[in-house]
Design a protein that fits this description.
Number of helices: 17
Low-confidence stretches: none
Bound molecules: zinc ion
Order of helices and strands: EHEHHHHEHEHEEHEHEHEHHHHEHHEEH
CATH topology of the domain at 51-320: Arginase, Chain A
Distance between the termini: 70 Å
Helix content: 40-55%
Number of strands: 12
Radius of gyration: 22 Å
Mean pLDDT: 96
CATH architecture of the domain at 51-320: 3-Layer(aba) Sandwich
Largest sheet: 8 strands, parallel
Shape: globular
Strand order of the largest sheet: 2-1-3-8-7-4-5-6
CATH superfamily of the domain at 51-320: Histone deacetylase domain
Length: 508
């Protein structure tokens, strides 16, 4: 057991990043503060080393972004300018303190990486905001200004001589900014688990389906809702861990968003990762890169979930006891379909995945089942993407009140759901990996799995399509960045061509 302390970053300058024109913003200062207080309360920071954050300088930001974005953020010196700036961006708010906070978030992440390579710490967690994983190039979006994790990875490589870095992003939203920042760089392996829903979910792009052209990118698009911690960890065993064993990173950066947590974002339409799942994912990554596994905070929006989840993740990084993890006997069906596609797609680059695929195919044959048909999945997001792009082009982005706040009743439901599973916790230090046989049986692909996959994915995708159709038909007031009044005005004035609904039948 290492004698070196755990490292952490927490700096109240990042609490100054707060939306002045809309108090309903889900990405708010208390996220960071509550996580820090929770870790203190759980005594997880006792004996840990606090790493001082600092403001990153322009040259460090330029490791991943052009000076243009740096200058734009510096220029935001009034609330009016801040809101105006966001009228051609996707889901972004800014304030006069954004520049300072965003620089401290980067500086803190970099200092944590440095501390790990100066052998001062054994693993660590940067509690930072604004988050970063949606930002790339000159595109700030999705609550993200600069890409903290991508800059930290590039800093490690360019300035510290680290040869290979893996980034693992388990935030519910696609690590699209990170992908655009690191794709095709053979020194960086990138994994993102993310809500996809056949492209009907933001960022409405085919590019984030499983079929990435970059051997070093693993996308696990989630088409169904409520995948569990056991499902996620199973995908680690099936694909991610063998990939990382082949890649051999010297540093793992976790893009630690907790919005896939059970009853976090969108409640039963979200994902179902219970808090200890984050502990187990961190524990397994630490086995690949002992002592050099560093988490950087991304999303997570329901306090009762993200404090619990962050606490468990840190337990995993500290190698403390964790609640026993249940590995499901069969994988959640729509994730299983994705896993088969991933194995088919990536097996040409990874011999271990090829072996796994062959074993699964032999199992199908032995059971008298038809082979899995490797398929290009459907994509439902084209018209949504077009509408978002048009709204941005004409600078008529709705900049406020994207998410309704939870009612007190809803919050009580979230709390109750989380309390229920916490009652079942059985803490232990002994965690055995699932056997290869169990992992194979999880993946049996039969008619039931195929229909379950469809049934699991359909309800939420239908809701998303219906929201879009209702908006373009004028039956729904707003849709995230699309504002009814501004949209209608733009159409009336001939600035914008009205968008067409997604239909399931042809109109002859
Ligand atoms: Zn997120």
């Amino acid at each position: 057991m290492s004698q070196k302390p755990f490292g952490y970053v927490y700096d109240e300058r990042m609490l100054g990043h707060e939306c002045k024109y809309d108090k309903t913003m889900a990405e708010c200062p208390k996220r960071m503060k509550l996580i820090y207080e929770r870790l203190q309360k759980d005594q997880l920071l006792d004996g840990a080393l606090k790493i001082d954050a600092r403001e990153a300088d322009d040259s460090e930001i330029r490791l991943n972004h052009p000076q243009q974005l740096v200058d734009e953020i510096i220029s935001l010196n009034s609330t009016e300018k801040c809101e105006e700036y966001c009228k051609d961006k996707e889901i972004l708010w800014t304030c006069e303190n954004t520049n300072e906070a965003a620089r401290v978030a980067i500086g803190g992440s970099i200092e944590l990486v440095k501390a790990a390579f100066e052998n001062k710490i054994h693993n660590g967690f940067a509690m930072v905001r604004p988050p970063g994983h949606h930002s790339y190039g000159k595109v700030a979006q999705g609550y993200c200004i600069f890409n903290n994790v991508a800059i930290a990875a590039k800093y490690a490589i360019e300035k510290l001589g680290v040869k290979k870095v893996a980034i693992v992003d388990f935030d519910y939203h696609a690590g699209n900014g990170t992908y655009q920042s690191v794709k095709d760089d053979p020194r960086i392996h990138f994994t993102s688990f993310h809500g996809h829903h056949y492209g009907s979910f933001w960022p409405f792009s085919r590019e984030y389906d499983y079929h990435t052209n970059d051997p070093n990118t693993l996308f696990v698009p989630l088409n169904g809702t409520m995948n569990s911690e056991g499902d996620y960890v199973s995908v680690f065993h099936h694909v991610l861990l063998p990939m990382l064993k082949q890649f051999q990173p010297e540093l793992i950066l976790i893009s630690a968003g907790f919005d896939s947590g059970y009853y976090d974002l969108m409640m039963e339409f979200g994902q179902g990762v219970k808090a200890h799942g984050y502990g187990h994912m961190a524990r397994l990554l630490n086995e690949i890169c002992p002592g050099k596994t560093l988490a950087i905070l991304e999303g997570g929006y329901h306090p009762y979930n993200y404090t619990e989840s962050a606490s468990m993740m840190v337990r995993g990084l500290l190698n403390k006891s964790l609640p026993r993890l249940e590995i499901p006997s069969r994988l959640s069906a729509s994730l299983l379909e994705t896993l088969w596609n991933i194995l088919n797609h990536h097996s040409k680059w990874y011999p271990k995945l090829n072996e796994k695929l062959n074993a699964l195919e032999r199992q199908q044959e032995k059971l008298g089942l038809d082979p899995f048909v490797f398929n290009q999945t459907i994509f439902l997001g084209a018209k949504m993407r077009l509408m978002y792009d048009d709204v941005k082009k004409h600078k008529i982005v709705r900049t406020r009140e994207w998410f309704p706040e939870l009612s007190e009743e809803q919050e009580a439901v979230c709390k109750q759901k989380i309390d229920e599973y916490k009652k079942e916790y059985e803490f232990t230090n002994h965690h055995s990996d699932p056997s290869e046989d169990n992992l194979l049986v999880q993946c049996i692909w039969d008619d039931a799995a195929r229909s379950d996959a469809f049934m699991q994915a359909s309800p939420f995708a239908s809701v998303l399509i219906q929201e879009f159709n209702d908006f373009v038909a004028g039956k729904r007031e707003n849709m995230m960045i699309c504002d009814r009044e501004m949209y209608i005005d733009a159409v009336k004035n001939g600035v914008l061509e009205a968008h067409k609904p997604i239909t399931t039948t042809f109109n002859y």
